Known about the structure:
The chain is mainly α. It has one domain (3-100). 51% of the residues lie in helices and 0% in strands. The radius of gyration is 14 Å and the shape is globular. The structure holds iron/sulfur cluster (2 copies). The site of one iron/sulfur cluster has 12 residues, from helix 6. One iron/sulfur cluster binds at residues 32, 35, 37-38, 50, 66-68, 82-85.
Amino acid sequence: MDLFEEKMKALKDMAPENQMQVVGKLKERCPCPTCPSYTGCAKNAGETLFCTTGKSFMCISEEKGCSCPTCPIAKEMGLKYQFFCTRGSEKAQRYENTIWGTKMI
Length: 105
Ligand code: SF4
Ligand code: SF4
């Protein structure tokens, strides 16, 4: 089990209210709003933390750069991927790679 899998397991074992608290705190720290790909639509919808919550809901479609590789949360969570707002959460990108056996980046 790698760091990301350990973190996900720990989150899954928490009570729902604690999960929401942890995710809420991560959302506050997520630097997505300073990324060139981030849009006003995403801001108005309060979208952040795409690595965990998954793709943007029709607010981000163009990849103009990604701050994820230098994000402290990515290091803490053991993330391998990026462009979560357009390509899906870390979990989704890992799962798709498992199924198709291809690299998305
Ligand atoms: S997931 Fe990456 S590309 Fe998308 S808004 Fe966040 S930092 Fe930018
Ligand atoms: S890894 Fe990307 S999506 Fe996740 S918190 Fe950092 S900037 Fe936000």
